[in-house]
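$ run holo --ligand "magnesium ion" --emit tokens
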Amino acid sequence: MKVRDLLIDDSFRLTVEGNLDAEITGCYCGDLLSWVMSHIKPHQVWCTVLSHVNIVAVASLTQVSSIIICEDAPLEEATLNKAKQESINIIATSLTSAEVARRILNG
Amino acid sequence: MTVSFEFAVYHEDYHNAGVASSEIKKYLTQIGLDPQLIRRIVICSYEAEMNVVIHSYGGKMVLLIDDNEIRLEIADKGPGIPNIELAMQEGYSTAPLSARERGFGAGMGLPNMKKNADVFEIASSPQGTVVKLAWVII
Ligand SMILES: Nc1ncnc2c1ncn2[C@@H]1O[C@H](COP(=O)(O)OP(=O)(O)OP(=O)(O)O)[C@@H](O)[C@H]1O
Ligand SMILES: [Mg+2]
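-- output --
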């Protein structure tokens, strides 16, 4: 699945566009950065309720193309700007990370 | 030949936090290092960089690359770690609320560094903490 395929589901709102042709190989849900940093795999999407600017560096360092901000967690302007710079997709949703994971894993 | 880079890291500068690690990653990718090795180095570099931002008065990171080894040395200006054995335990953290709100403070940074470096050394006094990491290039 590519990121653009995920966006067909209108629960997902594309907030910052990076690379929509990036392949999605799975997903990782986590809100503690040290765990995400050492356990997320390249090309997984990251589901989180964190929304401050540091999530962009974590995604970019771990080769994650897309961050899904779950449960309508409020996004900071600095995060959006940084994501634009780094070409990371930011996708907002009201869904929980568990529900996002279910939809991604079911294809 | 040894190549070296130096990066300054500032206390509570969350906005630029991660920039040094991004530069390190960019450079290691350019020289064609094995992606698995880059991943391990970057995990350590980010954890070390964030520890300086969160827990210290500021410091610097130095990356040294030669033909068969990559070294990363992170030194800060204090206040130091009173009990290193305790700090090394998974889950131990004194991160302030401002860091925890951002998702830091799992108490996994130092254990992650130890796990992902071939050589891990840490020394600390009230004047500062020095973390020395190294990886062998095969
Ligand atoms: N450079 C440093 N200067 C002073 N204290 C430090 C430094 N690095 C680590 N510490 C101390 O060691 C503890 C454990 O560090 P560690 O990186 O393992 O976890 P953390 O930074 O608290 O959380 P995490 O890294 O999971 O976000 C810190 O909470 C802090 O008390
Ligand atoms: Mg840490």
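-- notes --
Helices of chain A lie at 3-6, 33-39, 54-61, 77-86, 97-105.
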